[in-house]
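Ops channel
N.P.: pipeline sanity check, posting one input/output pair.
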């Protein structure tokens, strides 16, 4: 375990080992806020120390975490759990450590005006106490990474991993007191109440990852207390295969991407557009890829189970509804295996074609091992169909970075765009992770995360020979009227000149 740095508060060190469950949610907020006010804004070394201990919490207990995730899901490969929920957090935590000193420094702006006696700067102050709610599909990655951003910004953090993955939450709740005082990091469990109880906390920022429906409820609760909210939500993510793309490469990538975590990823491709002439080739290659990858399913520990019975039945309902209304279903079912299997909650990889408006799967995010494929003749058809849905969290493009890609990007909206591979925008601390519209608001990762949990605080000092207060308060003298009129004339001149330049460029 990482040794706490000397600058860590002695009060914080003295309360190590105290479980969050010894206090109510309200008490945890009060404890953290009191500590924040007592200790003041933390220096860079304190922030880096907290981020480092956060990483150690995962790395030191990785095997126990992977076992808990497998138990929560019923079947989940150890390799996926370690890659996503442990190692997958380290990229951004390391980026936060490297960047925090520069990001937290006060920014000097308008230096020329400063020489004239009007000095301006921007402080990057912590908000105070941050509450972070995570989902069940990646219960640690999607709580620990934003927690690292919150620590970089100088805040105290209360985590609430999903109650659906209770075993994993218990592991983190058990070990967290060995690394953190509850003044720094507290872990809320089901013993603290429901997610809706957590959403009502009077904190300084609420961060939520999950479905749009629950996200709307969280935002409504937070709004009652005027608490700012960051929402990282889901959506039906489209994929577009270009007319001259390598079909084998595209089919292989999208078949694999759909099956990450059993399809239970907010970034999985949900539906694919393929050039009409290549539809049969594409679907055959997807099915062939799944057949190769999953020679067995029921007893295959590397085939992730659907998280619970509710979602298992929901996904089967979407498949059945589409098939009954005329869609064509192709499933990869190894010989002799009675799939779908309710006991293990395993649904075979399923490919649907002929899906039309009116089918439930046309509107609902699947969040399971099902891929819908549509043929297209012209890219305008694709743009029209994508734009008829709420904005997705991401979009996939298979092909070159060409004029057709540019047309798609310019005429659609999504949280991100990934070309030729799965979720690769996650593997850089320089890129934000953020939804748009129905898929979320606000973002994190890298500096974006630091800024999400900071307040850009304007600071202005004047040594000017004139007083703004005097100029803007009565009595207004003739000289004041003349000054105002001259200002308007000057701004009108500049604006007319700018308008002429714009019209000339537009050819108007």
């Amino acid at each position: 375990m990482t040794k706490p740095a000397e600058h860590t508060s002695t009060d914080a060190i003295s309360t190590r080992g105290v479980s969050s469950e010894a206090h109510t949610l309200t008490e945890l907020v009060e404890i953290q806020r009191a500590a924040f006010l007592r200790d003041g804004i933390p220096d860079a070394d304190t922030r880096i120390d907290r981020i480092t201990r956060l990483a150690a919490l995962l790395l030191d207990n990785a095997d126990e975490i992977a076992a808990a995730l497998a138990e929560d899901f019923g079947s989940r490969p150890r390799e996926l759990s370690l890659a996503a929920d442990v190692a997958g957090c380290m990229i951004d935590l390391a980026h936060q450590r490297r960047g925090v000193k520069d990001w937290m420094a006060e920014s000097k702006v308008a230096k020329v005006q400063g020489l004239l006696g009007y000095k301006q700067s921007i402080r990057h102050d912590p908000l105070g106490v941050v509450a972070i709610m995570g989902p069940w599909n990646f219960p640690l990655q999607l709580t620990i990474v934003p927690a690292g951003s919150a620590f970089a910004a100088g805040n105290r953090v209360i985590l609430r991993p999903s109650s659906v993955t209770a075993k994993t939450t218990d592991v983190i709740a058990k070990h967290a007191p060995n690394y953190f005082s509850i003044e720094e990091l507290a872990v809320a469990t089901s013993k603290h109440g429901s997610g809706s109880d957590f959403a009502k906390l009077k904190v300084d920022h609420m961060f939520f990852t999950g479905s749009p429906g629950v996200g709307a409820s969280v935002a409504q609760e937070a709004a009652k207390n005027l608490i700012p909210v960051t929402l990282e939500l889901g959506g039906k993510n489209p994929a577009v295969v270009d007319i001259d793309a390598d079909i084998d490469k595209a089919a292989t990538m999208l078949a694999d991407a759909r099956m990450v975590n059993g399809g239970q990823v907010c970034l999985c491709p949900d539906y694919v557009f393929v050039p009409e002439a290549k539809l049969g080739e594409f679907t055959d290659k997807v099915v062939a890829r799944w057949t190769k990858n999953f020679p067995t399913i029921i007893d295959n520990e590397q085939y992730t189970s659907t998280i619970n019975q509710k979602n298992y039945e929901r996904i089967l309902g979407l498949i059945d509804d589409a098939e009954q209304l005329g869609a064509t279903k192709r499933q990869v079912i190894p010989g002799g295996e009675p799939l779908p299997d309710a006991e293990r909650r395993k649904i075979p990889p399923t490919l649907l074609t002929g899906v039309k408006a009116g089918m439930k799967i046309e509107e609902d995010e699947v969040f399971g091992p099902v891929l819908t494929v549509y043929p297209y003749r012209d890219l305008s058809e694709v743009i029209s169909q994508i734009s008829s849905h709420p904005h997705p969290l991401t979009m996939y493009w298979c092909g070159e970075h060409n004029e057709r890609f540019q047309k798609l990007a310019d005429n659609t909206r999504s949280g991100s765009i990934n070309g030729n591979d799965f979720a690769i925008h996650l593997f850089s601390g320089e890129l934000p992770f953020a939804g748009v519209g129905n898929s979320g608001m606000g973002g994190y990762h890298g500096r974006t995360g630091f800024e999400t949990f900071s307040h850009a605080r304007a600071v202005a000092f004047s040594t000017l020979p004139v007083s703004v207060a005097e100029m803007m308060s009565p009595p207004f003298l003739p000289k004041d009227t003349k000054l105002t009129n001259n200002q308007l004339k000057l701004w009108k001149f500049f604006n007319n000149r700018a308008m002429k330049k714009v019209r000339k460029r537009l050819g108007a």
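N.P.: looks fine end to end. The chain has a mean pLDDT of 93.
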